[in-house]
Amino acid sequence: MPQQILILDFGSQYTQLIARRIRELNVYCEIHPFTHAPDLTEDIRGVVLSGSPCSVRDAASPNPDLSKYLGRVPVLGVCYGAQLLAHQQGGEVLPATIREYGRARLARVHHDSPLLRGIPTESQVWMSHGDTIKTLPAGYEVIASTPEVEVAAFHIEGQPTYGIQFHPEVTHSADGKLLLHNFVVGICGLDQSWTPEHFVDSMVTALQRTIGEQDQVILGLSGGVDSSVAALLLHRAIGGRLHGIFVNNGLLRKDEYEGVLHSYRDLGLNVRGVDASAEFYAALAGLTDPEQKRKAIGRTFIEVFDREAQKVDGARWLAQGTIYPDVIESVSVNGPAVTIKSHHNVGGLPDKMNLKIVEPLRSLFKDEVREVGHTLGLPVDILHRHPFPGPGL
Predict the structure, then answer these.
(1) Over the chain (393 residues), what is each successive 10-residue block's mean pLDDT?
(2) pTM for the complete prediction?
(3) Is 169 a catalytic residue?
(4) Which of 24, 44, 163, 257 would be a feasible disulfide site paired with 77, CB 3.0-4.6 Å?
(5) Is 129 a catalytic residue?
(6) Is 384 assigned a catalytic role?
(7) d(CA 230, CA 360)
(8) SS3 of residue 168 by DSSP
């Protein structure tokens, strides 16, 4: 595993944004729900505690044991995370006189603090909280204030632990990215080596080690960026042992099936095109309810894909274009989101396929997938293809 920052998620709407900002610094990070807080390992060089819609004063709010991190690695508490650091050690957190939501200005900054180095007095920050830290525990030092909030930031003396009441991850905090840089690079000591090039090299090595020298891999291609980037990574790792299957469901853009298939072959990918339009039209005949249509499309896709996959001798792996937001959603603090609609090709593949899953993009956000695709030489027309809601029409 690369060196990383661990982000403990307490249910904030901004948690993924914290991760995005840290990734923009070429530093790897992972989000874990506080209910499954991992033990400290050698690769975890710092911990960020996220915000939350909860109040530390409520008995049912997130209240994990942070002792396995505190004093052992640098810790940064953001909003609720800062309040939790104060509350757990006997500080007083009370309802704010007025719920603070919006822009504020720092009025006092401890410029010698490693966390606030280079951040000017009067720097604009973004507040979003209903509680405020009224009294800090012994050994906690205020390092920044606003005219309305005395404890806008604090440091626990004798250890690299900090709390901030504002949100550095949003663009409204003018020097938020500098603060995060101060924490992950200056305080945690990470070297900013997590680049698209580094990811490609390390993932190709990992895929070769995982898949071995004999096994064949099947990948359902859609013409979209995720499956296409996954295909190029796997192709670089195992060459012709990757078998792409591109199914034409009859609901694509005009001439898209032929154009995408041609693009894939120009890239040297081993891809089989399957024009199953007639089967999809038959499955959709007479249906008017959108959810029934989606399920019919999903069911037909699985039948076609399974039939084609069985033609590949020695197939042991099914590759998927799962990306990091999918992973986060499935293990979020509140569990998977309520289903609004089913996705047209999600629903599982038959157990009889008996294939192991490989997901080379499961650690990447969408913009990072595009950066990796650019590094791999994916053509612009695929890299920036606009989603087309064929199955949703």
Answers:
(1) 92 91 96 93 96 90 94 96 95 79 89 95 89 93 93 96 95 94 98 95 95 94 91 96 95 89 93 96 95 92 93 93 84 47 43 82 94 94 77 57
(2) 0.84
(3) yes
(4) 163
(5) no
(6) no
(7) 6
(8) coil
